[in-house]
Design a protein that fits this description.
It is built from seven helices and four strands, in the order E-E-E-E-H-H-H-H-H-H-H. By secondary structure, the chain is α+β, with helices and mostly antiparallel strands. Among the domains are: 52 residues, no CATH class; 104 residues, DNA polymerase, domain 1. A four-stranded antiparallel beta sheet has the order 1-2-3-4, with helices on one face. Helix 1 packs antiparallel against helix 2 and helix 3 crosses helix 5.
Length: 228
């Protein structure tokens, strides 16, 4: 047990990385915009905490920069995208492949709507998003379209959380129906015919093999001839 004089927080060999003695969990401690931040890295393993620390700091600094941009009236969709991506990168519940795919959907959106990222986040309308979707779904598979809609929606949610706008212009976008491949099974008659062909083919092979064995051995030994 900890005595009353022993500090609860333990410094480590890594700058901005602390360990909480009671739980053994590691925390990031840093300053952003003159404000001291302390956030859990959700691990008690030093090597894992060491890897997560830079991402956690980048997440908060990127968020702060976006807040500052909004304060002076300069928040673009690209700013909101950066906040979104920082959150994705620092989300320990997401697997690396999931993080990579979400970044790819951002790239798909950028390619299909180049001017979007430089546009003031408040100036994007529902009609703009609907027109983009019409173009986008002509070039990408339904699963890519649906995931990209989800990404764009999450980007605008980040803008809403900062107060940059009060509604999500993607809220009326509908997901594309993904057609399932139809599995064609044989009818009962076809299946029975198939089984019969296999059975008779096997029997014919065995009879042929037996005939060859009988022709190559004396008749006295033919009764003991088998074909494996």
């Amino acid at each position: 047990m900890l005595n009353g004089k022993e500090p609860l927080w333990e410094s480590t060999s890594i700058q901005n990385l602390l360990r909480y003695r009671r739980s053994g969990m590691y925390f990031a401690r840093f300053q952003v915009g003159g404000r001291r931040i302390r956030q859990s890295l959700e691990t008690a393993v030093f090597s894992v905490a060491k890897q997560r620390l830079p991402e956690k700091i980048r997440e908060y600094r990127s968020r702060y920069e976006s807040f500052q941009a909004f304060a002076v009236g300069k928040m673009t969709v690209g700013d909101a995208v950066e906040v979104y991506l920082q959150k994705v990168r620092s989300d320990v519940s997401l697997k690396p492949r999931s993080k990579d795919y979400r970044e790819k959907t951002v790239d798909f959106i950028r390619r299909s709507w180049p001017s979007l990222f430089e546009t003031d986040v408040r100036k994007i309308s529902e009609r703009d998003c609907e027109n983009w979707l019409v173009r986008f779904q002509q070039h990408y598979a339904p699963t890519v379209v649906n995931n990209s809609i989800g990404t764009l929606r999450a980007v605008f949610e980040e803008a809403i959380s900062t107060g940059a706008r009060f509604n999500n212009p993607t809220s009326r976008l509908s997901r594309v129906r993904v057609r399932q491949k139809q599995l064609e099974l044989p009818s009962r008659e076809q299946f029975l015919k198939f089984v019969e062909e296999i059975r008779t083919a096997g029997a014919g092979w065995r009879m042929e093999c037996l005939g060859r064995s009988l022709s190559q051995r004396p008749r006295a030994a033919s009764a003991q001839t088998f074909c494996g």
